[in-house]
Design goal:
The chain is α/β, with parallel strands linked by helices and 343 residues long. 42% of the residues lie in helices and 20% in strands. The longest helix has 27 residues. Its EC number is 2.3.1.234.
Length: 343
């Protein structure tokens, strides 16, 4: 089955063509072609994504991105069997751009249009590693808008066991990036500075907090860490940005590793999935791979870097799983900005 995936939840306009097969116990995905247009430069001057502007850019770019993806896949619309589109979570104006485009295309082609949950997409992104998720599975989802630990006993049975109490981890990276005077988005810039600090063995004389690291639950908090950076910068006349970036990133990594390790110890998952844009961070990936060596019976799945940030490939996969689970192609689609991964 050829699936057309559409993603417009934030500032990436993305379309992918994916060949999908198998069943819920043995899924098989192959990426045929994809195209993406990033609006990062457009929104950089605002210090964040402007929803109305994002929607307009999506509407303008979707037809062009669709054509590009079809060319890369060496196929045409007549060969598409199913359309999947992100309905949430995300910026509702941006989501509506994708939903409207998908519904019009589905009507024209007379094929089903299936809603996809963006966060389920981040979990499904690991399926392009040519391996399946064994249940029970633990998923750590870390992005600009989310930080949560989800326990899955099957594709349809999920329990959120931990979440951020304030800022998402990606949001904290961006806010600290602004405090350091770095360009938007701040995450990649902080990672670059932190890497240089490690190479030069530059260490900050102060130590930032590791929020909630000793709490007995699996929840997160990053606003206090951000505030600690703010106070440190405010009280210093001379700032070593490399040292600050390294200490901040180390605090984030230790917090995420600690909470995930505690959840592994309690639930003994067969698979650990880590998805979302923040796992593109090289140091974080390396630390999770180190952690996995302590659990040889547990499989760890991390998507390739191109599938960590927002993309339509993962949406095609998540939509196909939803199609297998709940084949109701005539559902009325609606943008749901606060859509939860646990229904």
């Amino acid at each position: 089955m050829k699936i057309l995936g559409i993603e417009t939840s934030c500032d990436e306009t993305a379309v992918s063509i994916v060949e999908a097969g198998g069943d819920l116990k043995d899924l098989d995905f192959k990426l045929l072609g994809s195209a993406l247009n990033s609006q990062v430069k457009i929104h950089a001057g605002y210090g964040g994504v402007v929803p109305a502007l994002a929607k307009r850019e999506h509407q303008k770019n979707l037809p062009l991105i669709l054509d590009e993806a079809l060319k890369k896949a060496d196929t045409d619309l007549s060969k598409i069997d199913l359309i999947t589109v992100t309905v949430g979570p995300g910026l509702e104006p941006a989501l509506w751009a994708g939903i409207t485009f998908a519904e019009e295309l589905g009507k024209k082609l007379k094929i089903p249009v299936i809603p996809a949950n963006h966060m389920e997409g981040h979990i499904a992104s690991v399926l392009f590693n040519k391996t399946n998720i064994e249940f029970p599975a633990l998923a750590l989802l870390i992005s600009g808008g989310h930080t949560e630990l989800v326990l899955l006993t099957s594709w349809g049975e999920k329990e959120k066991i931990g979440k951020t109490q304030d800022d998402a981890v990606g949001e904290a990276f961006d806010k600290v990036g602004r405090l350091l005077g770095l360009s938007y988005p701040g995450g990649p810039q902080i990672s670059k500075l932190a890497r240089e600090a490690r190479e030069k063995n530059i260490i900050l004389e102060a130590k930032f907090p590791r929020p909630m690291i000793h709490s007995k639950d699996f929840n997160f908090s990053f606003s206090g860490l951000k505030t600690a950076v703010l106070y440190y910068l405010r009280d210093k006349k001379e700032i070593n940005k490399l040292a600050v970036a390294r200490e901040f990133e180390d605090a984030v990594i230790e917090t995420l590793i600690s909470k995930t390790k505690a959840a592994i110890e309690k639930y003994s998952p067969k698979t650990l999935v880590i998805g979302g844009g923040v796992i593109a961070n090289k140091a974080l990936r390396e630390n999770f791979l180190k952690l996995s060596k302590n659990y040889p019976e547990m499989k760890i799945l991390i998507p390739e870097k191109s599938l960590t940030t927002d993309n339509a490939t993962m949406i095609a996969a998540a939509g196909f799983i939803e199609y297998l689970r709940n084949n109701k192609p005539n559902r009325k689609l609606k943008a749901q900005g606060n859509l939860d991964i646990v229904s």
